[in-house]
Amino acid sequence: MSSAMIETTYREAVREAIRDALRRDPRVFLMGEDVGRYGGCYAVTKGLWDEFGPERIRDAPLSESGFTGAGIGAALGGMRPIVEIMTVNFSLLALDQIVNNAATLRHMSGGQVSVPLVIRMATGAGKQLAAQHSHSLENWYVAIPGIKVVAPATLEDARGMLWSALEDPDPVVIFEHVMLYNRSGPLAADAGPVPLAGAAIRRPGSDISLISYGGSLYKTLDAAEALAREGIEAEVIDLRSLRPLDDATLMASVARTHRALIVDEGWRTGSLAGEISARIMEQAFWDLDAPVGRVCTAEVPIPYPKHLEDAALPQVPTIVAAARAILGRE
Amino acid sequence: MSTAMTKDQILAATLEELTNVAPDLADETIPPDADLREVFDLDSMDFLNWFTALHRRLGVDIPELDYPKLRSMDDVATYLAARLGGL
Amino acid sequence: MISLYRMPSLGADMEAGTLIEWVLQPGQTFAKGDVIAVVETQKGAIEVEVFHDGVMGRQLIEVGQTVPVGTPLAELEAAMVTPPDQRTGVQSGGLTEVLSESLPADMTASAIGVTEAAPPLAPSPQAPFPKLSTPVAPSSGESPPRSAPLIPPSPSMPEAVDPRASPAARRLAQQRGLSLDGLVGTGPGGAIVLADVRSAAVALASGTPQAAPRAPAPSPTVPPLATPAASATAGRRPAHPGLDLAAMRQAIAAAMAHAKREIPHYYLSQDVDLTPASDWLAQRNAELPPERRLLMGVLFIKAVALTLKGFPELNGFDREGRFEPSAAIHVGCATAIRGGGLVAPAIHDTDHLDLDTLMAKLRDLVARVRSGGLRASELADPTITVSSLGERGVDRLYGIIYPPQVAIVGFGTPRPAPWVLEDRVVPRQVVTVTLAADHRHSDGHRGALFLAQVAQRLHEPENL
Lengths: 330, 87, 464
Prior knowledge:
Number of strands of chain A: 14
Shape of chain C: globular
Structural class of chain C: alpha+beta
Oligomer: heterotrimer
Distance between the termini of chain A: 43 Å
Strand content of chain A: 15-25%
CATH architecture of the largest domain in chain A: 3-Layer(aba) Sandwich
Number of helices of chain A: 13
Number of helices of chain C: 9
Largest sheet of chain A: 7 strands, mixed
CATH class of the largest domain in chain A: Alpha Beta
Strand order of the largest sheet of chain A: 3-2-4-5-7-6-12
CATH topology of the largest domain in chain A: Rossmann fold
Radius of gyration of chain C: 25 Å
CATH architecture of the domain at 264-463 in chain C: 2-Layer Sandwich
Largest sheet of chain C: 7 strands, mixed
Order of helices and strands of chain C: EEEEEEEEHEHHHEHHEEEEEEHEHEEEEH
Shape of chain A: globular
Largest interface: A-C, 30 and 32 residues
Structural class of chain A: alpha/beta
CATH class of the domain at 264-463 in chain C: Alpha Beta
CATH superfamily of the domain at 264-463 in chain C: Chloramphenicol acetyltransferase-like domain
Number of domains of chain A: 2
Helix content of chain A: 25-40%
Distance between the termini of chain C: 50 Å
Strand content of chain C: 15-25%
Order of helices and strands of chain A: EHEHEHEHHHEHEHEEEEHEEHEHEHH
């Protein structure tokens, strides 16, 4: 706790987490496209191939279903694989393996086997990578019983969630938002594992609960600051775990603020924001002083031009405007 | 002050000031001998405001010690007439 | 920008109000806080205030008309851009943009005088949410709308038969025994939200306290609104401009029934030797002309206000069972209305006022209770109530707390009484002070300390 702080980036924090896991446990290995010699398309794994060698940092062919399935098999065989999928868009090719194998085998085997697999994947827009590399499909995974889904947004969580995920006996999907990799900040030099469960209140407030996760967290915190200048004290909650959701923290916050706005980079229809909204309605209806609001991405394939990409995504002014509307302060 | 005021004039001025401080009594018929506290529910604030107004209008200061004997319009008018006549 | 000024709600019980005077005429400018009209309610004639600068526009109802709460009374125009005939489209082109601007926050947030943006020239269905609610209907049955908004359309707000209220507001209203009818909403789309119910509860409470109302009384002479209550006392009853005594009785009934039902009162009383205060006051007043004299009630109020500083648990509000202390001390002064009924408007920051100022404020308050003309803001925010039965001859009164306040202090009639002083029985001037307080938020031990300190302060009137 009281140890020295180092200045680092989200990317380095993830890399350090992988390195730490590789050192801790010889069963751990990393597998994915361009993770080895190239150092990862987001440069997360740069240097690990030299350090740990091609046995433990394995470059895979462009075959998401194949290498994810291989990861599942390795996990069944007693290994602790980390499978990296370049973006969530590409992960759809592996969805059969994840839904029909990784998530089910514990249940179909009557508890005889488990799949201690970790799948890391990049998600989100903001780098002008257009509609096949930029989507936020976390909600697809959140809908799958049998796996856990987390979205580290802070350096501590980027550093700490991987090991906890590897220790979990069931498959865990880790979403890393592409706009977070370059974020820098102080991190304790001896930062270590953090629990996967539980949402975190990143900013306390009394007037409205702003619920967010991943890449949208910092936009939401900025919006909270803007609202504070208008005398609106927003509480900002970082979900951290997307499946399971920490209902208790959410409902306790709504009970205090009586208002909720969910900021979610996914598309609105069928979104995680929709799920959270429904839970609030089910569990905290009588605490609500206004309809639950959502700020989501426009329902278009993410555009390539910068101005259109920006316009499609949740942004600080849209979050502020939505919060004001909920408070009747248009 | 106007020592030439008649008792009736004093009574009229007294009534006028009373309805100024208690406009809710304006439409009432207030018998000169009615006990204002008992019948019309005047309270200490009303009495004080009334005596303040009379002091301004007629120049007669009614000390607190005399309050207890001033219970009706007649009491007040008679008291004022005596004080004005004595000037 | 044109906004509508609507009939304000001054309590959950208020369903309608009667316009008795337009203080401002079309074209006249006004500043935030100005009184624009006088409205008759069961609490008397209330001066209603505006919450921004601007110019009076078209008046939509006439003097004498009784309209439900929420009915538009007048069009107000924001400062500067304000030809009165803006709505007729006479003005030059550049001004029309202003119509779609949103309101400053403090206008919509006000629970008392409620304004809202008027629909633009040709009212459109999206008027309440000009910026957000432009959902595009899918052109065919297929998937998402072509240009789905980033922020979801808020629920549309058509005219509804039932008042639109948030779940939390409904729950609180039910707990308080308040009706939502007649409340003016300040939430999204004009919905009634928690804050509206809370201020209604406060406003309702302001029309009420005291255990023993003075002479009950129907009034054959009460003007327009009044439906005289039943009890027929012999005495003649005075007129009250714009006062509906029957409605006020209902408001008192609702608030007091709620208080007795929900608030676990505890009661304490203490006899206080008032001789030092009486002597000090008599001596002081003897040297002063009537306009500078003080009433004993002022000493009572000041002693309570000063003592409260050390007893925050008695000064504030119960919010759904949780105590919300008030930093400011606004003593509500229970003031009887001749003919029955009473109000307890606040004297703001009572603890900071010297006795002369306090006396002046009390005089002003009583005068305006008598003549009509209480300000809505005075009714809204007392943090405690002091009730004094003055010279009416009762020894002590046990008050009923005004929700959402948590305490009421009562003073009986000062009286000469035998008193033991240094082993001898002597005649002294004595007053009995009582405290009724909410046991959810304070205990008798603290209440007793509070009364002891009030007594101590009355022993040293020169320090008040």
